[in-house]
Amino acid sequence: MPVPASFNDITQDPSLENYIGWVWYEKEVQLPLRWLQDDLNTRVVLRFGSAHYYSIVWVNGVQVMEHEGGHLPFEADISSIIQGSPGIPCRITVALNNTLTPHTLPPGSIQYMNDKTRYPKNYFVQNIRFDFFNYAGIHRPVVLYTTPSVYIDDITVTTTSSESVAMVQYQVSVVGSTLYSLSLSLRDQEGKVVATGDGPSGELKVLNPNLWWPYLMHENPGYRYSLEVKMQAQANGALLEDVYTLPVGIRTIHVTSTQFLINGRPFYFHGVNKHEDADIRGKGFDWPLVVKDFNLLRWLGANSFRTSHYPYAEEIMDLCDAYGIVVIDECPGVGIKMSESFGNKSLQHHLVVMEELIRRDKNRPSVVMWSVANEPASELPPAGYYFKTVIAHTKALDPSRPVTFVTDANYALDHGAPYVDVICVNSYFSWYHDPGHLEVIPLQLTTQFENWYKTYQKPIIQSEYGADSVPGLHSDPPLMFSEEYQKAMLREYHSVFDKKRKEYVIGELIWNFADFMTNQGTTRVLGNKKGIFTRQRQPKSAAFVLRERYWKIANESSCLPPIIKSHALFLK
Ligand code: GCB
């Protein structure tokens, strides 16, 4: 089985496609001798970018870690197992289980079908309440890396700035000894040192800073300084040195009752929702696909996306930082519908997942807001305490960013909305409601916005809207599933956005960037077809409508001279 990849679509075996339960991976690697014997001050770490969902890992038969949940990294120090026996290969064994329970994220449940007249013995299905195929496997790269035995374990950076001076606050944690020294230097993109510091925490002052700006908001978006953190320690009679270089974007975020400000300027999210999804590889990380998608975002004039409905690969996040693509970073809290999923056990796990996500992404300038869930049953009374707690925990871990969750509940019944900074609302007027009736959109969408704003006086993002279209299916007048219908639906939504973005609507994210695989069902034709691109990344007619719109908005709101599409300020 290739890694990284989902295992589901790789073979011709239909039972693997929908397999639920344990799978095993094993690989032997030969490690460099110097890791094993020459230098016992070397710490060897085994790291998984992500694996779905519950993982147990052994090295040479010794269990080294277990981890609950996909989409986030986990790692273990394996030095004590491999050191001292040079010449023996390092055997890595992984057991993965993709069974979901009411307390996992996302939640799910196993249902045994006990009617012997209709189902074979022990027949069961896994019920999920989310709309993407539940791919499983080792989805992201697995690496072995080394550090000295005293090492930099974590760095946290936050930034504040005015026009002429910025402050970079840092905190460094070192593990392995209390006797160490730390020196820091911040370099600009020319390599010039602009500030220096020492010690585990402090502040660096940057005069006339180059701020991190979103794509299409500045002629040099995604500007990042390099923070070099150097640690020196004495251990076992040797001088140990660990150096880590962290890209740092200087930018500020503020939310008012009507605006989302980046560096003090109003930011309008004109972007997409995505999925990690593709033919054959499923959710497996794939560089060509990732780079293709960034080129399509650039072409589209999209300045943002939401990581619907789980954290995306770190490599993708790196590109967002570098190109200035603004991210709403969502945890895997999707399909929280059962009342058991609002209990203490689920809540504790949700808090841990937020800790893992924030630890991974806290230093990313592209991440401007955390989303703790998508379309939970937030009208259930326990949702109030649940979201109050998850959001308070998230804010305590990271006071620098606003927090939201994405709702499709009725504005008057939503128990989680009081705790969010920005209202993110999904609606599918003329699709799931009043199918075929495009003419209801203006009234229903206007009412939706007005109700939410009247109740909360918080800015609103239309975090999903869309219609399926089967590429190549045409109909005039527009009928559902044709490319014309998808375009017509977009235009109806856009006319309302254009009125309300003058007031308090701060963004629109199409559902979805590309078609993606789902469970089989009577409303899905080889997956969800709400993409403006096909699963193979070819544009449908709707992509051109959106492209015209996004470039128009970018030119209206930019302080720059008109930006010509062919000279997009991207991928320089
Ligand atoms: C939604 C969900 C999204 C689905 C979409 C649809 O509200 O958030 O995951 O794929 O609707 O197309 O049904």
Automatic annotation (TrEMBL):
A Pfam cross-reference name: Glyco_hydro_2_C
Domain of life the protein comes from: Eukaryota
Domain Glycoside hydrolase family 2 immunoglobulin-like beta-sandwich: 150-251
UniProt xrefs under InterPro entries: Beta-gal/glucu_dom_sf (IPR036156), Galactose-bd-like_sf (IPR008979), GH (IPR017853), Glyco_hydro_2 (IPR006101), Glyco_hydro_2_AS (IPR023232), Glyco_hydro_2_cat (IPR006103), Glyco_hydro_2_CS (IPR023230), Glyco_hydro_2_N (IPR006104)
A GO cellular-component term linked to this record: extracellular space
Entry EC number(s): 3.2.1.31
Entry's family note: Belongs to the glycosyl hydrolase 2 family.
Name of protein: Beta-glucuronidase
Higher taxonomy: Eukaryota, Metazoa, Chordata, Craniata, Vertebrata
